[in-house]
UniProtKB/TrEMBL annotation:
PROSITE patterns: PROKAR_LIPOPROTEIN (PS51257), TPR (PS50005), TPR_REGION (PS50293). TPR repeats lie at residues 77-110, 147-180, 181-214. InterPro entries: O-mannosyl-transferase_TMTC, TPR-like_helical_dom_sf, TPR_rpt. PANTHER family: PROTEIN O-MANNOSYL-TRANSFERASE TMTC4, PTHR44227. This is Tfp pilus assembly protein PilF. Residues 1-27 form the signal peptide. Keywords: Repeat, Signal, TPR repeat.
Amino acid sequence: MRRLRKADFTGRWLFWGLVASLLVACATTPENRLDPETAVHDAAKLQKIGESHLAAGNYAIALKYLTAAEAKGHDTPELYYDLALAYRGRGFTEQALVYLRKAISLRPDYPEAHNALGALLAEKGLIDEAIREFTTALNDPFYETPHYAAYNLGNLYYRQGNYTKAEEYFRQALQLAPNYAQAHLQLGRVLENRGDKKGAFSEYKDAVAYAPQWAEAHFHYGRLCNHFGDHVCARYSFEQVIKLAPESEMATAARNYLKQLGATYPGGIGQ
């Protein structure tokens, strides 16, 4: 059974991984519109259908199929991991924790589950336990996406104000995945907090290059473009923020920057 991965570019803990090979999109087939208790009798097939809904973000439907698979005695670590993802997607953190621990109890060398467990523990403020889980994932030589665990460790230390450790782990994440935009952005924040605006500018620039549709990257890049006097660059990035996330607080701040720059923008910016 392939492990499900899903992208998260929101700046939260990276509970999911990056989509490497999306499972077959079954959501439009007649079979998927039927009751999982009566339509499908094979537990592995139920899990596969549940995973397709999970990949599409249909968490409640995914849970119907995944719990049906569990009811048929399909007690694999991969199924428990899928159930944890689905419960987390629905906002049921405690159930997600239970299933992640079940997955790890069956398969201690399950780095994706360790990383996900670390993310939930970090959300609950259990920092030491979260560090242990992230580190376990990062140190697993068979973990296909260790940069997520390195990022999570960096983000944890960043939130604690430990910029030295945060920089160490963000740089490690980038060694593992040089085009990892989120790590570039967070490293930029670390460097800016340490007074290295030129270094931060370079990281924000890379974040925009690798994720040109990411409003947050444009916002921070625009700020430092403005700081260094490149008003053309600043104007473009702030306009991108407004285009990509028009109702966000960043867009409001971007409009204010544009007004200060004397820019004009559809809707009355700068007028």
